[in-house]
Amino acid sequence: MADKLNLQLQVWRQDSSEATGEFHYYSMKDVPVDISFLEMLDILNEDLTKDGIMPISFDSDCREGICGTCGFVINGIAHGPEKKTTVCQLHMRHFKDGDTLVIEPFRATPFKIVRDLVVDRSSFDRIIQAGGFISANTGNAPDANSILISKDQVEDAFDSAACIGCGACVASCPNASGALFTSAKISHLSKLPQGKVEASERVTNMVKTMDSEGFGSCSNHAECEAVCPKGISISNIALMRKSLLKSII
Amino acid sequence: MSKFITFSSILKKVVIAITGLSLFLFLIVHLAGNITIFTGNPPGQDFNAYAHFLESFGILFTVAELGLLAFFLIHISSALYTNYENYKSRNNRYAVSNFAGGNSKKTYASTSMVITGVVVMAFLIWHVLQFRLGSYYETIYPGVNGGEPVRDLYRLITEEFSNIWVVIGYTISLLLLSLHLGHGFWSSFQSLGIYGKNFTRITYSISYLLGTIISVGFLIIPIYIFFIN
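The joint structure predicted for all components is written out below.
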């Protein structure tokens, strides 16, 4: 494998949410294979800055794959070709010399493009505000064994709680559905005794907000599960539906 | 709450799933009834007797037909409306779209449900006009309907399926139906919130197979009739 790559980049550039965007083309020479995708864009941005061109805007924070801030679409796949990987943890060794990479922002009506690859995901915050919490004041942390929960149940709840809210599920869904995110946030609470008390109101309010934010409906393509950096399962979506039906009946 | 029930994305999918699964069951019953085309001496006696048996239920048969029509209309209208809403959920399209692979169940069948659905709907209208509302021939079998005339649907079928274009039209429509059923079957359970690690794995793995079996089952009839004539 070559240590350095030559790449053709096709990057979506858009000045503001109102502006019309278009693709800009950049050639990258001698990209080290050991750097991350975002570091590759950092190098490009330094070159652009030197040339007096506005650097490409993209979101990032921890660059360790745990915060959920980064994310865009590479060649039609959210977070790129590697499974269970955010773009900040995607390394250039997964690409081939001479590759053309089409880089687009997460596209969905509820995710307004702020600039270039940066999108506004505050619709997710509003879904959480609608019920993604436990409202009872529980005081200090209780003794570890005062509420007995089986290991399997804990692991199951934690699998749902692993969602970092990056929005790749919405970006990859052919319908731009927010079902995987919303269901993970509902499930991780409702799978534990503390969250069961408000389970019915929670699912009703969060689904209502999800719909009003303009997300599409889930058609069970499961593309979201495949691109999710945390591997959140579509079993959460089934559980959300079951809980909603239960809350109505 | 009532407004929420009407407009919730999840409940619309529940309606699509329940009507879809019911229509799936109808197809199985329809296919089972069609087996009588291959039996009977003289050819067609069993099939015409079966059709007459169904019609002999009178008002109950009409109610069943209208119920079936209602299921189709509810399934189609909810799906078309949901599809329109989904289209609005992405106001700027991707330049490149792809398949992520791995655990994804996104296929050409799953992404073209609305197209295969509309083609199947057009096919259904044609199919009903062709047979249910088609030419009314009569025939007499001793022992069927007490020797009184019954509708000779078998003759209509042999006439229609002797036309190569009709057979080609059926072949294309039924193959598209197999794709529609392939995604629709397993997906209905998921839409109803029925998920189990093994259950979902099994329903998904047999879904496309079931769709193909049903379509090929129906397809044998026009091809068989075309070649025996």
